[in-house]
Amino acid sequence: MAAQKIQGRVIAAHGRHYLVQTDTAKLQCVTRGKKSDVAVGDIVDLQLTSANQGVIEAITERKTLLYRSDQYKSKLLAANVTQLFIVVATEPGFSDDLVSRSLVAAEAAGVSVHIILNKIDVVASLEKTRKRVAFYGGLGYPVHEVSATMQPEATVAALLPLLTGQSTILIGQSGMGKSSIINLIVPDADIAVREISAALDTGKHTTTFTRLYAIDDQTMIIDSPGFQEFGLYHLTEGMLERAFPEFEPYLGKCKFYNCHHSNEPECAIRTAVAASDISPMRHALYLQLLHESSQKLY
Questions:
Q1: Which of 61, 79, 97, 175 is most enclosed, with most CB atoms within 10 A?
Q2: pTM of the model
Q3: Helices (H), the chain
């Protein structure tokens, strides 16, 4: 009898081991060979090898793919996401560089962004944090203020309508409250994490892998591990300049068609920076990312 082929969604990944949710079960899966480019959120074709195990044969076409990369390799974050929640907090302090890089990654991947300011009950640093976050609001990214611990009902009321019908990945440094938010939205999240950890044999390392929670057929939330760096070495120059929405009115208006917006004369982007129409911080990030993309070794 031929082995049964079925389809499912990858809900967790650890190394080259995957947990795939099908219509009827959660299956522990591996890929053929050593190379793996499977991401959480992928819809995959797989072949059953036992009642609860399978081999991933193919990845169906992705709508989106969010990933980060350094000089040597890339790290897949999630596939088929429609939006990104960047979670920041009043304390501990968050990194503007990480937020800005996450925004660029989302723009390049065609994924919309919401910024979630958590822990607004910590009033001592609230105003200072609001000012920092307002900068991103000024770029056109919606900002939502919540307190997952102190105002749980209000937090759910604010976020659930944004999540419904979307596949959303949450990104943020450790300590920002991503887990608190997910536990509010997905009441059985802790139980699910224990199940996933057992299935993937990851022991206590419950925060080191990406996992997907399906609220219904159309609504998914993906939790990613906290990380401190977000390399974007894979983005080309053309992708980068289009990933800064505030650059858009000036693109194609430089004196030279192949302008890098660094030190060329009569550069429309640099003129806009000088006129305070583009933030110097954002222009500096663009130049830094441009430099990094030229260093790629893979």
A1: 79
A2: 0.91
A3: 96-109, 126-138, 152-163, 178-185, 189-200, 237-242, 268-274, 280-293
